[in-house]
Amino acid sequence: LNWAKICFYNHTSPTLYVCFIKSSEARTRGGGAGVYSTQSRRRRSWVWNQFFVLEEYTGDEPLYIGKLHSDLDKGDGQVRYVLSGEGAMSIFSIDEDTGDIHTTKSLDREQQAYYTLRAQARDRNTNLPLEPESQFIIKVQDINDNEPKFLDGPYVARVAERSPVGTSVLTVVATDADDPTYGNSAHLVYSILQGQPYFSVEPKSGVVRTALPDMDRELRDHYLLVIQAKDMIGQMGGLSGTTTVTVMLTDVNDNPPRFPRKSYQFSVPESTLVSAVVAKIKALDADAGPNAEMDYRILDGDGLGTFRMLTDPHTQEGLVILIKTLDFETKTSYALRVEASNRYMDTRFLSAGPFSDVATVRLQVEDVNEPPCFSPRISQMAVSEAAPVGTEVGSVSAHDPDASNCPIRYAIDRKSDVENYFDIDRQSGVIRTSRRLDRELSALHNITVLATESLDHSQVGKAVVLVSVTDVNDNAPSFPVEYQTSVCEDAQPGQIIVTLSAVDLDEAKNGHHFLFSLAAKAAWNQSFVLRDNNDNTASVLTWRAGFLQRERPLYFLPVVISDCGTPPLSSTNTLTVTVCECDLHGNRRSCVQEMSALLLPEGLSLAAVVLLTGLLTLLGAIRRRRKEPLIIDDERDVRENIVCYDDEGGGEEDTEAFDMFTLRHLNETKRSYHVTAPEPPPSREDKHQLFQEFIEDRLREANLDMTAPPFDSVQTYALEGSGSAAVSLSSFSSLTSLESEQSYHFLSEWGPKFRKLAELYKDREGGGAS
């Protein structure tokens, strides 16, 4: 570089200069150049402009950049120039003696545009700085060495078909790495190399636009453009870059649907099921996507009520669907006029014509061998559950729909009548019962009747017959559950211990009405009374006070329940009442069934408890009797298995064996319990009934007593009651003459349980004492 001489005046030291001079000029020094003033302190500064160097230098020799010089340099070699900073001694070098600066490498402005360095003059001998260190810049000057580049290319764009001229498609952008502030190296111009005459590009902005109107996607759906960007404002010698743009034409609805044919013909078997597709037709539409979606419909014809049309969403086919069964014997062909139209319209193109098309569809019905048909297919019949076997329930009828009119044979599908309740006549179709019916087991029978052609057994028709079984009164009412209730020992008369209800399996037209009562053998019991509530329930109340669990822990009340059917039916149900020990608040503390529950598995009823207890007692007695020696002595009477005890009764104080108050005041006790229902004067039969109940109660208690003797025994009571209705309860050995005159024939009327006792008293009436 040729630098002009530049001198800077230093206000603080007017005698000092720093100059850059042209190599062809003489250096000029101010007055007293090189002389150091003693009147002011020495201050020096380096001032110069920027250095410039061209990039991409390819010469063999180092490129000269400029020269550094100090006024202190006398040319005697005592001054040494030093360079430091970016690229010092690696990219840039300096001659220590002359201060000439060279570059040793080729520079690239796009990598680094300038370098900052520092220069200093030093004394060669002492290496002390002669001048303060100063900073300068070497700027790399640009040349056009970079072509434009499309960083976002290649491009893909879309534009609607039939777009007007000048419609913007997209904008392409190229970049140039050269310096845009220096020359025209980065000034670009765009042009289109491929894609004319369909598209154009704006030279400065790079906007690509349509250049032709009415481009049709159906003829050509995409175009490939080549766009060029050139620097140096497009002048000769400029660098250029290219990119591609793929333009896709998007569809618009500019084409109506068209049928390839105006008439279609199909064959349909008459056995085709309803909802089946019997024909498919398709109109063609050159458009794509939603613009090609169509709707099909039947305009007119003789099959409007037999067929309908739908559009397959995947194939855009028109589907002809059967909505009513076909019958070749009734109608052999159908003709339909169908229309296909676009679902979405573009109003810009409606002027070109209607976007729909019409075609004719002919359907020919084919004859097939059909199975027999029932009329009706579902029949309802009714029969009484009391109907005898062989009763006619009803009949079904089927016919062959074909012209051959083949004979029909009937049968019942046994899968629908597994238990063979019904039979059918093969010829007439009459259905009869084949066994007794029970409405309570099955109120409705759903059977399937089969009709088979006699000449072709593969042709089978089916019908459903619903047989309802009507009800008769053949079930007696009963308890809904097994009632087991309890009563406290201190219960008072008139206390409700349980409320009973009933169920009846029969069907009542106006609702059930039940009547409750005690069985005849329990009507005169002295403990409980039953009250019918007249609402299909009954209440059981205590009739007396003072129950003793140790004397009688259980009561069994036979309850008779009657219905009001025709004929009326009744049943006897047993109510078990357990005597319990209770606290002052009426809460149970111990009952018989609670003890039984500890001994027996869950699920055994109270009757089973009593029966099992008796069996265990009997087995224990048999085992003890087997161990006893077969010795007969005077102290044992084995004739009636009567055990003799050698102790006398306790008299009135003996309250453990029997309630003496009851024996003494039997008549008064009975009268005291008749509070709610007055009792007529007791007759002889009533007295016998009283004794029978008393003995049965004692027998039941003995059977339930686990500690009682295993043999039949007679307990002796030494007290003779006064005025007792039982006359006397003395032992056999204390009978008086008056007692022997009494007749005991009534004992033989009490059944087999009292047969031994009747025979014993019969012998005494005959005059024999034993």
TrEMBL record:
GO biological process, one term: cell morphogenesis
Location relative to the cell: Cell junction, Adherens junction; Cell membrane
GO cellular component term of the entry, any: adherens junction
Major subcellular location class: other
Cadherin domain location: 70-150, 151-259, 260-374, 375-479, 479-603
Listed InterPro entries: Cadherin, Cadherin-like_dom, Cadherin-like_sf, Cadherin_CS, Cadherin_Y-type_LIR, Catenin-bd_sf
Positions of transmembrane segments: 598-622
Alphabetized PANTHER family for the sequence: CADHERIN-23 (PTHR24027), CADHERIN-7 (PTHR24027:SF91)
Alphabetical keyword list: Calcium, Cell adhesion, Cell junction, Cell membrane, Glycoprotein, Membrane, Metal-binding, Repeat, Signal, Transmembrane, Transmembrane helix
Taxonomy of the source species: Eukaryota, Metazoa, Chordata, Craniata, Vertebrata
Name by which UniProt lists this protein: Cadherin domain-containing protein
Function, in words: Cadherins are calcium-dependent cell adhesion proteins.
Gene Ontology MF: a single term: calcium ion binding
